[in-house]
Automatic annotation (TrEMBL):
InterPro entries: MFS (IPR011701), MFS_dom (IPR020846), MFS_Na/Anion_cotransporter (IPR050382), MFS_trans_sf (IPR036259). Keywords: Membrane, Transmembrane, Transmembrane helix, Transport. It is a multi-pass membrane protein. PANTHER family: FI19708P1-RELATED, SOLUTE CARRIER FAMILY 17. Signal peptide: none annotated. GO terms for molecular function: transmembrane transporter activity. Residues 13-399 form the Major facilitator superfamily (MFS) profile domain. This is MFS transporter.
Length: 399
């Protein structure tokens, strides 16, 4: 849907989308942080905890592609604002939940309706407003919000949950989400549609899926996110259960590693956009190999400071690989094809995140050691680089 653009302050636009992303990532982290407190009020088994976490990813993956058509139909601005408002709405319901069944249902709906459209819609705002040479950096800024959320989320939520309780914490998250949605509504101006014919006609998802590049990028997103989500979600268990680190120390280590991720997303994406234009494929192949090798090496490092440096460096390289990979669709696709193309690729990453939890749990339980998990991480990095070997970015035309 083409629109009549008003003059937009790109810094304000990017800043507001960044705030929305911070809300998205804090909400993703919130259940992992609060689940121990929740289980004291609503007793549940470890498998039930995992089910609540997995329900979010299931809903997220199911609605990725359908939500892309909503973006084409209603516009990216409405989906961005609506997503953040729905996060607030579902956080309120989650905090009011009287049973485990409701917790499960709310997280499923949160993934389906609140989270599934934000990444694609915000990316569409970027491609509609930023020149192509600035899109990798812009995407890097947005994804760097995961590092910011990873640093401030545990620091802010943990004491609130401990002192005031998890239900109060989710009330605050509701207020935060509504506030950010209001800010975004002012930062992204409404645009007048010049014509609706193209939007009404739409594009067939089968037409989109005929492009082999989409499926190669889908595989790359699956492998890299499998690695990143697996590492982030299982790191606390590894440190506390297998390294004898306290929960507080584990949180400090995770925050320090998150800082490296932030540097990789912002600094790395700037360098790629500035000095490696047109060489995205090479950047992903090299950084994913280096990152996975460093992850594997970190298993054998026992001194906390050196461990932070090695694992943090690996996260920096892997985050840069992820940012660069997810910026590729913003350079290849536009118009009606962008949202379904990007959503399909993003679905690979979401499925990878869900699969990681199951595979790592199985490997550690069967082997009795986290070494098998770190070998798995190394293999995922190699598979990420291998999958990108087959993509031909130069020959891919914009739709």
């Amino acid at each position: 849907m083409k629109q009549e653009n008003k003059t937009i302050n790109l810094n304000v636009l990017l800043g507001s989308l960044f705030l929305g992303y911070v809300m998205v990532y804090i909400d993703k982290l919130s259940v992992g942080i609060s689940i121990v407190s929740i289980s004291k009020d609503l007793p549940m088994s470890e498998s039930t905890k995992g089910l609540i976490l997995s329900a979010f990813f299931l809903g997220y993956a199911l609605m990725q592609v359908p939500m892309s058509f909503a973006i084409n139909r209603f516009g990216a601005r409405k989906v961005v604002i609506g997503s953040v408002l729905l996060i607030g709405f579902f956080d309120f319901l989650f905090g009011m939940s009287p049973s485990v069944q409701m917790l499960l249902s709310v997280r499923l709906l949160t993934g389906m309706l609140a989270h599934s459209g934000y990444a694609s819609a915000s990316s569409k705002e970027v491609i509609e407003n930023f020149p192509i040479e600035r899109r990798t950096f812009a995407k890097g800024i947005l994804i760097s919000s995961s590092g910011v959320a990873g640093i401030i989320g545990p620091i802010l939520l943990s004491p609130i949950i401990e002192i005031k309780g998890w239900r109060f914490a989710y009330t605050l998250l509701t207020i935060l989400a509504i506030t950010i949605a209001i800010i975004i509504s002012f930062a992204i101006p409404k645009r007048k549609e010049t014509f609706k014919k193209e939007a009404n006609k739409g594009i067939s998802i089968l037409t989109v899926w005929k492009n082999s590049t989409i499926w190669i990028l889908f595989a790359g997103a699956f492998f890299i996110n499998n690695l990143l989500y697996g590492l982030n979600n299982w790191l606390p268990t590894f440190l506390t259960s297998y390294r004898g680190v306290s929960l507080t120390q584990s949180g400090m280590i995770s925050s320090a590693v998150g800082a490296f991720s932030l540097i990789g997303a912002i600094g790395g994406s700037y360098l790629v956009g500035r000095f490696f234009q047109g060489r995205d494929k090479l950047v992903i192949i090299i950084t994913s190999i280096i990152g996975s090798l460093l992850v594997f090496t970190s298993y054998f490092v026992h001194k906390p400071f050196i461990f932070i440096i090695v694992l943090g460096s690996s996260t920096l390289f892997l985050t840069l690989a992820f940012v660069t990979l997810m910026a590729i669709p913003m350079k290849l696709f536009d118009g009606q094809s962008f949202a379904p193309s990007y959503s399909t690729i993003a679905s690979g990453g979401i499925i990878g995140g869900a699969v990681a939890q199951l595979v790592i749990g199985f490997l550690v339980e069967r082997s009795g050691t986290f070494l098998t998990a770190f070998i798995y991480f190394f293999i995922l990095g190699l598979l990420t680089s291998l999958s990108l070997v087959f993509v031909k970015l130069d020959s891919t035309k914009k739709a």
